[in-house]
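For reproducibility, we list the full input for the pyridoxal-5'-phosphate complex.
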Amino acid sequence: MVQVDLTDSTADLAHKYEALAVNSNVGNAQAQTTKGIYSSIWADHINDYRGIRMSDRALLCPTHAHAEKLDSLMSSLYDVHGNPEGTINIGVAENGLMVREYIEQYFGTALKKGLNPVDMGYGDRVSGSARLKNAIADLWNENFDPVEPVLPEHIITSTGATGILDQLTWAIVNPGDAILIAAPFYAGFDVNMVTRSGSHIVPVQIPDDEKAYLPESLQAFEDAYQKCKAEGRDVKAVLLCNPSNPLGQIYPRETLLEYAKFTERHNLHLISDEIYALSVYDNPNVTNSPNFISFLNLDVEKETGEKFDKGRVHIVYSFSKDFGANGLRVGCIISQNNPFLLRTMLHTCFLMKVSSPADVLLSELLNDKPKFKAMIAENRRRLTAASSYCREWFMARGIPAMDTVAGHFMFVDFREHLNITTFDQEKALWQRLMDVGVYTATGGAYHWKYPGFLRITFSVDQELLKVGLQRMEKELDLKISQ
Ligand SMILES: Cc1ncc(COP(=O)(O)O)c(C=O)c1O
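The corresponding predicted structure, in tokenized form, follows.
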């Protein structure tokens, strides 16, 4: 049996795929999802399956296990009245800090106001309604100062950034081609960008000190590129996550320009995932953080004096994080100089655009500009307060928590406190917390090179966070240090 879990690196997965393909009988799915780590209503069916033959791809799919893990988690979530023993989810990036305001002040009435008869049909565009695409173009033009104004025709919408990454990767890589991403990175990339396209993600281990965000960090990309070439693997793209998930940091302008030069030198696509663009907040411990700059704000040729093909730049954005709306599933790509790419993505599955109710809710919100700005500013204040609370909580108990200035999470370092030196020990810690109803995310799942870290989401409902931390305190016998 081939056992795989979420903390496997992509390279491990690739080996296990091969083993799986060799071991599997025609028509019988022999994949086994890791048991014991979580319960899955699907895994038993997969192991017992002896039915009609599936595609080879289907044989490989269960090994990712990501979706099953989330499915299992969501079915048993904590509710103070309905399910007080349920699991507290501080492992997924969800922003509950403004949810009540959004529902009460906007979403409750927006549907009634904005929903038109045309919304009950397929609408007025297959790539997203004109209403939403105009609102997204305005959002970008008014908040991120793009060199070239964003127009509705630069945009395609889909079911969250997840849908966009899936369609985008399918369009730009051939199976086996590599995509380079600075590690640590969002664990979902290993699934969303790999499963359908067959791409091979290469985690690039950039320096983990203050040099991590400097232009010199691109040397690690050059090394990774040359290694791929020596192995006979085509590199097709670089993904930059700015602000970074999971480190919650922002890249300075000079480093973004270095990324641009690197992709031009090797003729690569440059995917800039800017999903946390408006979730930048103050952290009194960090006084020298650069401001967030969208890649569209760079005039690469003018600033570097070197030729640059703007058709390689694709911005990925979604309303899940900055607007606390994971559930609405609204994402988009903005690619200003590559209509061929947008057309191809559209052709992978037309009408995969945002559903009308979600479209109406967000368009109404974006078009109420003064109020929308006030909501974003309040969200930032709450992110500052929530992140400080969480960081100080761990620090007071002698557990180092990393400083962050963006996003919804922070890495927390249990190495010393629990004497963790291996990824197996890190997984055991994760399981221990899971057993007492606290879902966190392991550093290993993000390709972080040091075992012993958990990524904690601090932006959930603050009462929920407190219950999760209390459970953790009890289980791990954490004590306030003098
Ligand atoms: C960096 C990053 N990109 C993409 C996604 C996917 O977001 P969604 O599909 O909800 O838009 C996430 C979710 O956590 C993320 O952190």
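Residues 1-37 have pLDDT under 50 and may be disordered. The CA atoms of residues 110 and 425 lie 49 Å apart. Both points were considered when choosing residues for closer inspection.
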